[in-house]
Amino acid sequence: MYSVLANKVNKGVLNSRAVDYLTSEMDLNISEFIGGFIAIIMLASTVSLLYFRLYVDLQRDEEIYRALSKIGLNSREMRRAASRQIAFLFLLPLVVSSIGIVLRLFISEPSGINAVPFHLTLIQIMLYFWVIQFFSFLIVRFLYLRQLDLKML
């Protein structure tokens, strides 16, 4: 249906609100797809960079972990401290970006009929990123703590 209407508009035969609406919806869908794809790529690269940093730090601090285990720091305490460090690395950028999104919602109030869906879309995207980041935190934490246990033996 859209292609038939678009062909008639391009020929100058028909110009209606329906065509304008369909055109704007199509543009919005394309921009959402491209933005979502870029966001997924950035999220994956962030997770891989954080994991690489933690793994390099683990290799570098191997002697410190062994010394701490010799003076009496048990595996449970070391795992708790490492989990806090990983949570800080993963969740701090997410908290800062969420504050930015909330400020953006309050500072620039879009008007018109698209205001509510726009706010809901931003909140949905923020929640999706929280869920994805949380699951990636759990995976990286599991892998890191497994390596930490091997280093402390």
Query: Structural class of the helix and strand makeup?
Result: mainly alpha
Low-pLDDT ranges: none
- Figure out the total of helices: 5
Q: Care to count the β-strands?
A: 0
Instruction: Give the N-terminus to C-terminus distance in angstroms.
Output: 67 Å
Secondary-structure element sequence?
Answer: HHHHH
User: What oligomeric assembly is this protein in?
Assistant: single chain
Q: Judging from the principal axes of the Cα atoms, what is the shape?
A: elongated
Mean pLDDT across all amino acids: 77
Helix content: over 70%
Helix-strand layout with pairing:
Elements: H1 2-10, H2 17-60, H3 62-70, H4 75-107, H5 115-152
What does this structure look like?
By secondary structure, this protein is mainly α. The protein is 87% helix and 0% strand. The protein has 5 helices and no strands. Helix 2 (17-60) packs parallel to helix 5 and helix 4 packs antiparallel against helix 5 (115-152). It is elongated and about 80 Å long.
Key traits:
153 residues, mainly alpha, 5 helices, 0% strand
